[in-house]
Structure formats: C-alpha cells, structure tokens
C-alpha cells in the first residue's frame, strides 16, 4: 500500500540521494564559505556582487539540503520481490499501445524517474494507471496526445 507522503526509492536511488546530500553539506558548503570569505575581503558588502552571488548560492544550497533531508525522512525503499503477478513500484513491465511499439518500463518513485532510461514515476499518469494491474490486462492513461490504451504484455 502506498502512502501519499512517502517517497519511493530503489536502494541504489536512495544511496545516490544520500551521497548527493553529503556532498552538498560538506563540499558545497565549504566552497560557498570560501567564496563568502573572499567576497568579504573585497570590502564594502553593500555593493559587492561577489558577496551577493555567494549569499544567493548559500541560500539555494541550504534550501536543497532541507529538501533532500525532508525526502529522506519520508523515504521508503522498495524491495524487489519474487512476486510478479501485479504491477507495483519496482516492477519492470513490457507494454504496448494499439499503434505503438512495445516498451519496457520500470515503475519507480518520482525522485528516480527518468524517461530516457525508461523509468517512469508511480505518480505519472501512465505509472499510476499501471499500478495493481496484471499481465494481459489493459489500462487507459491520459497523455498529451489524448487517452491511450495499453496492454500489459509481461511483468519481468
């Protein structure tokens, strides 16, 4: 069962987010602190573009850190199971629509979605429509081109 406040991740995706957060906290904070020190050494802060840019970078970095920490508090790691009867987060599926080629997609959490890698979010219209369905079933999804019907050919 999905919780609307939860953020779903594969173990690898969660590890990647944690690594990026650590980089923001340690490396990026240090770089910005160094920029601020340099800008302060230039004198008058009221007309110091370098100082203003560094402060803005600091604000954006701290905002990103807070966002990532919030996501991590709500993170749920999706465990791969041997059960492949219904589509769930973490499922890799083969689908086709009435006019298009077969697609092999993986249903992932919104933070890991990457259409170029055939990873679609469980919150996307197609991802949401596929959840809970079985091999052989058809689902309807709304796309920018209108409503499409997809048939689930396989759950890998």
UniProtKB/TrEMBL annotation:
InterPro entries: GreA/GreB_C_sf, TF_GreA/GreB_CS, Tscrpt_elong_fac_GreA, Tscrpt_elong_fac_GreA/B, Tscrpt_elong_fac_GreA/B_C, Tscrpt_elong_fac_GreA/B_fam, Tscrpt_elong_fac_GreA/B_N, Tscrpt_elong_fac_GreA/B_N_sf. The keyword Transcription applies. Residues 8-77 form the Transcription elongation factor GreA/GreB N-terminal domain. Coiled coil: none annotated. It comes from the Bacteria. Transmembrane segments: none annotated. Residues 83-155 form the Transcription elongation factor GreA/GreB C-terminal domain. Keywords: DNA-binding, Elongation factor, Protein biosynthesis, Transcription, Transcription regulation. One of its GO terms (biological process) is regulation of DNA-templated transcription elongation. One of its GO terms (molecular function) is RNA polymerase binding. NCBIfam families: greA, PRK00226.1-4. Belongs to the GreA/GreB family. Necessary for efficient RNA polymerase transcription elongation past template-encoded arresting sites. The arresting sites in DNA have the property of trapping a certain fraction of elongating RNA polymerases that pass through, resulting in locked ternary complexes. Cleavage of the nascent transcript by cleavage factors such as GreA or GreB allows the resumption of elongation from the new 3'terminus. GreA releases sequences of 2 to 3 nucleotides. HAMAP family: GreA_GreB. This is Transcription elongation factor GreA. It comes from Candidatus Giovannonibacteria bacterium RIFCSPLOWO2_01_FULL_45_34. The lineage of its organism: Bacteria, Candidatus Giovannoniibacteriota.
């Amino acid at each position: 069962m999905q919780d609307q406040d939860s953020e779903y991740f594969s173990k690898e995706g969660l590890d990647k987010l944690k690594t990026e957060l650590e980089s923001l906290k340690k490396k990026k904070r240090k770089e910005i602190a160094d920029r601020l020190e340099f800008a302060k050494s230039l004198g008058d802060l009221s007309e110091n573009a370098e100082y203003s840019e560094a402060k803005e970078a600091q604000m954006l970095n701290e905002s990103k850190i807070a966002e990532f920490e919030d996501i991590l508090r709500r993170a749920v790691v999706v465990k791969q199971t041997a059960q492949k009867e219904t589509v769930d987060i973490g499922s890799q599926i083969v689908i086709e629509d009435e006019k298009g080629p077969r697609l092999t997609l993986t249903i992932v959490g919104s933070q890991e979605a990457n259409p170029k890698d055939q990873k679609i979010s469980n919150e996307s219209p197609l991802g949401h429509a596929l959840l809970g369905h079985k091999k052989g079933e058809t689902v309807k999804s709304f796309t920018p081109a209108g409503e499409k019907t997809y048939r689930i050919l396989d759950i890998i």
